[in-house]
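Appendix C: a fully annotated inverse folding record. The material below is reproduced so that readers can follow the format used throughout the book. The structure is listed first as tokens, followed by the designed sequence.
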């Protein structure tokens, strides 16, 4: 297992935007057709008929995820010192180094301060940043930074556990390998008790899955 931990002390890096142009599915289908030919296949044979169009449609859908939207927050003035953890979020993304899938299990935690965030928004935020060519380390930071803007402070922790097919089906081919990244902001970076609570509950969720 590979573990990477980021804290507020790390220098921020520039955000990498997702695709900004409309996907030309006709052009993509043509390129897939050409790829099949170069691989020694016959795109007109039974089983491959229509494959270029299906692959092109998938690329368009994958690179055009729903927006993260404006997260709904609800006033809860009686909250004090609670730790809120949202786990069990599983999203698929593509490793930009080999263009192979990676499955990312996402857990987010925060300390509310007078407001709570609508729970479904956590999943939408994760899906939004997964729908592009990615690396897990950047994905973790992007989800955390977006949540910072939603709740208005840095008391955010995000942990991601990834299965990378670029490591499972190629190269060393280690099917059981897992990569863990953790972003700890605000009190999660300075309060060891709070940080340990988050990590303990997070690993418990992963162990149950």
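Designed amino acids, in order:
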């Amino acid at each position: 297992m590979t573990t990477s931990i980021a804290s507020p002390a790390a220098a921020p890096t520039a955000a990498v935007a997702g695709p900004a142009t409309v996907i030309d599915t006709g052009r993509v289908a043509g390129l897939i057709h050409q790829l099949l030919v170069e691989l020694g296949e016959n795109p007109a044979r039974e089983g491959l008929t229509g494959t270029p169009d299906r692959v092109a449609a998938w690329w368009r859908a994958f690179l055009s995820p729903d927006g993260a939207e404006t997260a709904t927050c609800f006033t809860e003035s009686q909250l004090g010192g609670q730790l809120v953890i949202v786990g069990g979020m599983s999203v698929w993304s593509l490793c930009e180094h080999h263009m192979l899938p990676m499955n990312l299990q996402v857990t987010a935690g925060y300390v509310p301060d007078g407001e709570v965030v609508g729970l479904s928004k956590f999943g939408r935020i994760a899906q939004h940043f997964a729908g592009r060519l990615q690396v897990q380390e950047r994905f973790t930071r992007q989800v955390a930074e977006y949540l910072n803007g939603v709740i208005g402070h840095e008391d955010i922790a995000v942990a991601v556990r990834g299965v990378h097919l670029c490591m499972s089906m190629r190269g060393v081919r280690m099917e059981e390998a897992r990569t863990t990244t953790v972003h700890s902001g605000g009190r999660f970076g300075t309060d060891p008790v709070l940080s340990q609570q988050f990590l303990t509950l997070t690993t418990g969720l992963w162990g149950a899955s």
